[in-house]
Write a structure and sequence with these properties.
3-stranded parallel β-sheet, 368 residues, alpha/beta, single chain, 14 helices
């Protein structure tokens, strides 16, 4: 599965044909006459609670944007599966039975949800895959450019190593959950930078992105390689990076070697301030969440041209091809650009980051 961006010319062609009624993908899901006004319900299904972004950023932004687009009449029904596919299946079936107007689905297991996606389509309910590309006939997909995320992480790790990079540099890779299609793309992107530039001494696929399992895997890697033999650690996200730091501290490794992450969790930003984590792939959640809310509302309201304008890219899943998509870029956030990223975007205030425990470290890097 790999993402393929449309050319500008192709985007224009799609818009033109849609305006003439010649492109009908949007009408494939449910009734073509099902367009609604502002009184609509968006079902929002999130995968887990380990990553704090879902409840702290994604849900509030989507809720606010839906309200703004519908003069306060649209509502968002939120559910989080807490990493349980069985729970998410139950939550999605409930939303289908309750006849929500559209579902934004961030799948726990992208393959296991395909039957539910088909069930929603049969009920005339569009499904937009959010952040993770679900299998089955989804109407659209909104996420970040996942291979680029891995590339950004890999490049940052090499930059942190500098002249120490080379085949003698042993790297540990802690990749995301095997049930998350994004994890495969992050890994592929990272390996495109790291293969041949360093030696991947140990590599683990961490079930459910669990920080506890990441800590355990890192402990195994330390035993296999030796506490002084690890040049850097690739962690696919911040929660697992937290597990890596704990394992390093348990083993008495100080300082922690260059360590990557993703998502710009607050504790990860604070680890970056103190030097315990080198970087995080910062993904501007407001852009993703706002785009998803706009896609959901325009899809339900039958605004086909606006919907096409919001989905200029195309992606393939294992079950479907040429899925309308919006892929958002990412930034490598290090100590040098905290102000220009999470602070400038209003994700955190400096006072959120630089609490008493981190005040001296913040002052040292000019974060005041």
């Amino acid at each position: 599965m790999r993402t393929v961006a449309m050319s500008s010319a192709a985007s224009v062609m799609v818009l033109s044909l849609t305006g003439c009624g010649m492109v009908g993908r949007i009408g494939n899901s449910g009734d073509a006459d099902r367009a609604k006004g502002n009184d609509l319900t968006v079902g929002l299904l999130m995968p887990e609670t380990t990553n704090t972004r879902y409840v702290n950023f994604d849900f509030p932004i989507i809720k606010r944007t839906v309200a703004e687009l519908t003069d306060g009449r649209g509502r968002v029904e939120y559910a989080n599966a807490d990493a349980s596919m069985a729970r998410q299946a139950q939550q999605m079936r409930k939303m289908i039975d309750e006849r929500v107007d559209v579902i934004l689905l961030d799948a726990v297991d992208s393959h296991a949800t395909s039957g539910l996606v088909r069930k929603a389509r049969s009920a005339g309910i569009p499904v937009i895959a959010y952040d993770r590309l679900a299998e089955g006939p989804v109407d659209a997909y909104v996420s970040f450019d996942n291979e680029l995320v891995g590339e950004v992480q890999g490049r940052a790790l090499l930059a942190a190593l500098g002249p120490r990079a080379g085949t003698s540099a042993k790297i540990v890779m802690l990749n995301g959950s095997p049930t998350d299609p994004n994890a495969k793309q992050f890994k592929e992107g990272a390996l495109s930078q790291l293969d041949g530039a360093v030696t991947i001494a140990q590599s683990y696929d961490v079930k459910d992105w669990s920080p506890d399992l990441a800590r355990s895997d890192m402990t195994k890697a330390l035993a296999a390689i030796g506490r002084d033999g690890i040049a850097a650690v690739y962690s696919a996200n911040d929660s697992m990076a937290g597990g890596v730091v704990k394992a390093m501290k348990d083993a008495g490794v100080t300082p922690v070697p260059p360590l990557t992450g993703q998502d710009a969790d607050l504790d990860a930003v604070q680890r970056i301030v103190t030097g315990e984590q080198y970087m995080t792939a910062y993904k501007p959640y407001p852009g993703e969440a706002e785009a998803a809310a706009k896609m959901a509302v325009t899809r339900v309201q039958g605004k086909d041209i606006q919907f096409d304008a919001l989905t200029p890219d195309r992606v393939d899943s294992p079950t479907d091809r040429d899925i309308p998509a919006r892929l958002i870029s990412v930034t490598a956030m290090t100590r040098e650009n905290i102000k220009e990223t999470v602070v400038a975007d209003g994700i955190y205030k400096i006072s959120d980051i630089c609490i008493a425990k981190y005040r001296a470290a913040c002052a040292e890097i000019g974060l005041q």
